[in-house]
Amino acid sequence: MPVLPKKKVGLISCSGEELPEGMLSRVATLQALERLRPNETVTLCLPLFLAGNDKERAFAKFYPTIAIDGCDKRCAARATEKYSAPPTASIVIPEFLAARGLDAPKTRRQMDAAGERAADALAQEIAQRVDEILGVKREPVAEPQTAAESEAVTATCSCGSGIPVTRLVIAGKEREIVALPLIFEQFRNDGKTPAELFDAVKIYNAIPAELEAAYREAILCAYAAHTLEKREG
Ligand code: SF4
Protein backbone atom coordinates (compact mmCIF):
# COMPACT_ATOMS: atom_id res chain seq x y z
CA MET A 1 0.00 0.00 0.00
CA PRO A 2 1.43 3.43 -0.81
CA VAL A 3 2.18 5.54 2.20
CA LEU A 4 2.87 9.23 2.58
CA PRO A 5 6.60 9.83 3.02
CA LYS A 6 8.03 9.99 6.53
CA LYS A 7 7.61 13.44 8.01
CA LYS A 8 10.87 15.35 8.19
CA VAL A 9 11.81 18.94 8.80
CA GLY A 10 13.20 21.02 5.94
CA LEU A 11 16.10 23.28 6.89
CA ILE A 12 16.47 26.40 4.77
CA SER A 13 19.70 28.27 5.26
CA CYS A 14 20.10 31.75 3.82
CA SER A 15 22.67 32.02 1.06
CA GLY A 16 24.41 35.12 2.40
CA GLU A 17 27.98 35.46 1.17
CA GLU A 18 28.62 38.96 2.43
CA LEU A 19 28.30 38.40 6.17
CA PRO A 20 30.06 35.99 8.55
CA GLU A 21 26.60 35.09 9.83
CA GLY A 22 25.71 33.76 6.36
CA MET A 23 28.59 31.30 6.59
CA LEU A 24 27.53 30.46 10.15
CA SER A 25 24.05 29.67 8.93
CA ARG A 26 25.34 27.20 6.35
CA VAL A 27 27.89 25.54 8.65
CA ALA A 28 25.40 25.04 11.48
CA THR A 29 22.69 23.82 9.13
CA LEU A 30 25.08 21.25 7.70
CA GLN A 31 26.00 20.07 11.19
CA ALA A 32 22.35 19.59 12.07
CA LEU A 33 21.72 17.77 8.79
CA GLU A 34 24.73 15.50 8.82
CA ARG A 35 25.64 15.02 12.44
CA LEU A 36 22.79 15.82 14.82
CA ARG A 37 19.55 14.90 13.06
CA PRO A 38 20.49 13.05 9.83
CA ASN A 39 17.28 11.01 9.74
CA GLU A 40 14.86 13.77 10.63
CA THR A 41 15.93 16.57 8.33
CA VAL A 42 16.48 17.49 4.71
CA THR A 43 17.81 20.70 3.33
CA LEU A 44 15.94 22.94 0.94
CA CYS A 45 17.83 24.91 -1.61
CA LEU A 46 17.05 28.64 -1.37
CA PRO A 47 18.29 29.46 -4.88
CA LEU A 48 15.94 26.83 -6.29
CA PHE A 49 13.04 28.41 -4.42
CA LEU A 50 13.85 31.67 -6.13
CA ALA A 51 14.31 29.96 -9.48
CA GLY A 52 10.87 28.45 -9.16
CA ASN A 53 11.61 24.76 -8.59
CA ASP A 54 8.30 22.95 -8.02
CA LYS A 55 9.77 20.18 -5.92
CA GLU A 56 11.41 22.56 -3.48
CA ARG A 57 8.19 24.46 -3.10
CA ALA A 58 6.10 21.32 -2.78
CA PHE A 59 8.42 20.11 -0.07
CA ALA A 60 7.98 23.23 2.01
CA LYS A 61 4.21 23.04 1.63
CA PHE A 62 4.17 19.43 2.62
CA TYR A 63 6.65 19.46 5.49
CA PRO A 64 7.41 21.78 8.39
CA THR A 65 10.41 24.01 7.78
CA ILE A 66 12.96 25.99 9.77
CA ALA A 67 14.50 29.09 8.16
CA ILE A 68 17.98 30.02 9.41
CA ASP A 69 18.91 33.57 8.41
CA GLY A 70 22.15 35.49 8.71
CA CYS A 71 20.55 38.88 9.29
CA ASP A 72 17.23 40.57 9.88
CA LYS A 73 16.50 40.78 6.17
CA ARG A 74 15.40 37.15 6.66
CA CYS A 75 15.79 36.12 3.03
CA ALA A 76 15.22 32.42 3.72
CA ALA A 77 12.10 32.96 5.84
CA ARG A 78 10.64 35.49 3.43
CA ALA A 79 11.30 33.40 0.32
CA THR A 80 9.79 30.33 1.96
CA GLU A 81 6.69 32.26 2.94
CA LYS A 82 6.33 33.96 -0.43
CA TYR A 83 6.78 30.92 -2.61
CA SER A 84 5.46 28.14 -0.46
CA ALA A 85 4.22 28.45 3.11
CA PRO A 86 5.35 30.31 6.23
CA PRO A 87 8.25 28.49 7.92
CA THR A 88 7.29 26.65 11.08
CA ALA A 89 10.24 28.20 12.90
CA SER A 90 12.63 31.00 12.09
CA ILE A 91 16.08 31.67 13.55
CA VAL A 92 17.77 35.03 12.95
CA ILE A 93 21.43 34.52 13.82
CA PRO A 94 22.33 37.97 15.31
CA GLU A 95 19.35 37.62 17.68
CA PHE A 96 20.38 34.07 18.54
CA LEU A 97 24.01 35.09 19.21
CA ALA A 98 22.99 38.07 21.33
CA ALA A 99 20.65 35.92 23.43
CA ARG A 100 23.43 33.38 24.03
CA GLY A 101 26.28 35.85 24.49
CA LEU A 102 28.13 34.33 21.52
CA ASP A 103 30.17 35.95 18.75
CA ALA A 104 30.08 35.45 15.00
CA PRO A 105 33.34 34.53 13.24
CA LYS A 106 35.51 37.55 12.46
CA THR A 107 35.53 37.00 8.70
CA ARG A 108 33.05 35.63 6.22
CA ARG A 109 35.50 33.13 4.72
CA GLN A 110 37.13 31.45 7.69
CA MET A 111 35.91 29.92 10.92
CA ASP A 112 37.68 30.89 14.12
CA ALA A 113 37.26 29.55 17.65
CA ALA A 114 34.39 31.92 18.43
CA GLY A 115 32.69 30.98 15.16
CA GLU A 116 33.00 27.28 15.92
CA ARG A 117 31.43 27.75 19.34
CA ALA A 118 28.61 29.72 17.75
CA ALA A 119 28.12 27.13 14.98
CA ASP A 120 27.95 24.29 17.53
CA ALA A 121 25.40 26.14 19.65
CA LEU A 122 23.36 27.09 16.59
CA ALA A 123 23.36 23.51 15.29
CA GLN A 124 22.14 22.32 18.70
CA GLU A 125 19.40 24.96 18.61
CA ILE A 126 18.30 23.78 15.17
CA ALA A 127 18.28 20.16 16.36
CA GLN A 128 16.18 21.11 19.37
CA ARG A 129 13.67 22.95 17.17
CA VAL A 130 13.47 19.85 14.93
CA ASP A 131 12.63 17.71 17.97
CA GLU A 132 10.00 20.18 19.14
CA ILE A 133 8.36 20.27 15.72
CA LEU A 134 8.34 16.49 15.37
CA GLY A 135 7.27 16.02 19.00
CA VAL A 136 10.34 13.92 19.77
CA LYS A 137 11.58 13.70 23.34
CA ARG A 138 15.23 12.75 23.73
CA GLU A 139 17.20 11.72 26.76
CA PRO A 140 20.29 13.88 27.13
CA VAL A 141 23.23 12.06 25.55
CA ALA A 142 26.93 12.58 26.01
CA GLU A 143 27.64 12.46 22.30
CA PRO A 144 25.40 13.59 19.47
CA GLN A 145 23.91 11.04 17.09
CA THR A 146 26.43 10.49 14.33
CA ALA A 147 25.86 9.61 10.74
CA ALA A 148 27.72 6.34 11.26
CA GLU A 149 25.33 5.27 14.02
CA SER A 150 22.19 6.00 12.11
CA GLU A 151 20.62 3.44 9.81
CA ALA A 152 20.48 5.52 6.70
CA VAL A 153 21.83 9.01 6.39
CA THR A 154 19.29 11.18 4.66
CA ALA A 155 20.90 14.59 4.88
CA THR A 156 19.87 15.15 1.34
CA CYS A 157 18.57 17.98 -0.71
CA SER A 158 14.80 17.93 -1.00
CA CYS A 159 15.12 17.96 -4.79
CA GLY A 160 15.01 14.17 -4.43
CA SER A 161 11.97 14.14 -2.18
CA GLY A 162 9.68 12.94 -4.97
CA ILE A 163 6.55 14.65 -3.71
CA PRO A 164 4.33 15.08 -6.73
CA VAL A 165 2.76 18.37 -7.75
CA THR A 166 -0.56 18.23 -9.59
CA ARG A 167 -1.90 21.20 -11.53
CA LEU A 168 -5.67 21.60 -11.62
CA VAL A 169 -7.73 24.35 -13.15
CA ILE A 170 -9.71 25.78 -10.25
CA ALA A 171 -11.91 28.86 -10.50
CA GLY A 172 -10.52 29.54 -13.98
CA LYS A 173 -6.85 29.43 -12.99
CA GLU A 174 -4.21 26.70 -12.96
CA ARG A 175 -3.26 25.93 -9.36
CA GLU A 176 -0.75 23.56 -7.80
CA ILE A 177 -1.76 20.87 -5.32
CA VAL A 178 0.96 18.86 -3.60
CA ALA A 179 0.89 15.13 -2.81
CA LEU A 180 -2.46 14.50 -4.50
CA PRO A 181 -1.74 11.03 -6.03
CA LEU A 182 -0.28 9.87 -2.70
CA ILE A 183 -3.35 11.02 -0.79
CA PHE A 184 -5.69 9.52 -3.43
CA GLU A 185 -3.98 6.14 -3.21
CA GLN A 186 -4.05 6.11 0.56
CA PHE A 187 -7.74 6.97 0.62
CA ARG A 188 -8.65 4.47 -2.10
CA ASN A 189 -6.97 1.72 -0.11
CA ASP A 190 -8.51 2.79 3.18
CA GLY A 191 -12.00 3.25 1.66
CA LYS A 192 -12.51 6.66 3.29
CA THR A 193 -15.17 9.20 2.34
CA PRO A 194 -14.71 12.16 -0.05
CA ALA A 195 -15.23 14.56 2.87
CA GLU A 196 -12.27 13.02 4.67
CA LEU A 197 -10.27 13.15 1.45
CA PHE A 198 -10.70 16.91 1.15
CA ASP A 199 -9.71 17.39 4.80
CA ALA A 200 -6.48 15.46 4.12
CA VAL A 201 -5.70 17.59 1.07
CA LYS A 202 -6.16 20.71 3.21
CA ILE A 203 -3.52 19.51 5.69
CA TYR A 204 -0.87 19.69 2.99
CA ASN A 205 -2.15 22.62 0.93
CA ALA A 206 -3.12 26.15 1.89
CA ILE A 207 -6.61 26.57 0.41
CA PRO A 208 -8.17 30.05 0.45
CA ALA A 209 -11.48 29.98 2.33
CA GLU A 210 -13.32 31.80 -0.47
CA LEU A 211 -12.23 29.15 -3.01
CA GLU A 212 -12.85 26.10 -0.85
CA ALA A 213 -15.95 24.98 -2.76
CA ALA A 214 -14.17 25.27 -6.10
CA TYR A 215 -11.12 23.39 -4.78
CA ARG A 216 -13.34 20.66 -3.33
CA GLU A 217 -15.16 20.17 -6.63
CA ALA A 218 -11.93 20.02 -8.67
CA ILE A 219 -10.24 17.64 -6.26
CA LEU A 220 -13.22 15.29 -6.08
CA CYS A 221 -13.37 15.25 -9.90
CA ALA A 222 -9.67 14.42 -10.01
CA TYR A 223 -10.22 11.68 -7.43
CA ALA A 224 -13.04 10.17 -9.51
CA ALA A 225 -10.80 10.18 -12.58
CA HIS A 226 -7.96 8.63 -10.59
CA THR A 227 -10.23 5.85 -9.25
CA LEU A 228 -11.59 5.11 -12.73
CA GLU A 229 -8.12 4.96 -14.17
CA LYS A 230 -7.00 2.51 -11.47
CA ARG A 231 -10.06 0.29 -12.04
CA GLU A 232 -9.52 0.17 -15.78
CA GLY A 233 -5.78 -0.17 -15.48
S1 SF4 B 1 19.38 36.93 5.40
FE1 SF4 B 1 21.02 38.48 5.41
S2 SF4 B 1 22.91 37.28 5.32
FE2 SF4 B 1 21.26 35.94 4.64
S3 SF4 B 1 21.15 36.13 2.38
FE3 SF4 B 1 19.71 37.60 3.26
S4 SF4 B 1 20.85 39.54 3.41
FE4 SF4 B 1 22.38 37.86 3.18
Shape: elongated
**Bound chemical compounds:** iron/sulfur cluster
Task: Let me know the largest β-sheet.
Answer: 4 strands, parallel
Provide mean pLDDT, rounded. 80
Distance between the termini: 17 Å
Ranges with pLDDT <50 over ≥5 residues? 142-161
> What name does the CATH topology of the largest domain carry?
Rossmann fold
In percent, how helical is the residue content?
40-55%
Coarse structural class: alpha/beta
CATH architectural name of the largest domain:
3-Layer(aba) Sandwich
Strand order of the largest sheet: 2-1-3-4
Query: What is the H-and-E element order?
Result: EHEHHEHEHHEEHHH
Strand-residue fraction?
A: 5-15%
Global Rg: 20 Å
How many individual helices? 9
**Number of domain units:** 2
Can you tell me the CATH class of the largest domain?
A: Alpha Beta
The strand count comes to 6
Keyphrases for this structure?
alpha/beta; 233 residues; four-stranded parallel beta sheet; Rossmann fold; two-stranded antiparallel sheet; 6 strands; binds iron/sulfur cluster; single chain
Short recap of the structure:
This protein has helices spanning 20-36, 46-51, 54-62, 75-83, 93-100, 113-134, 180-190, 194-204, 212-232, and strands at 9-13, 41-43, 65-69, 89-92, 165-170, 173-178.
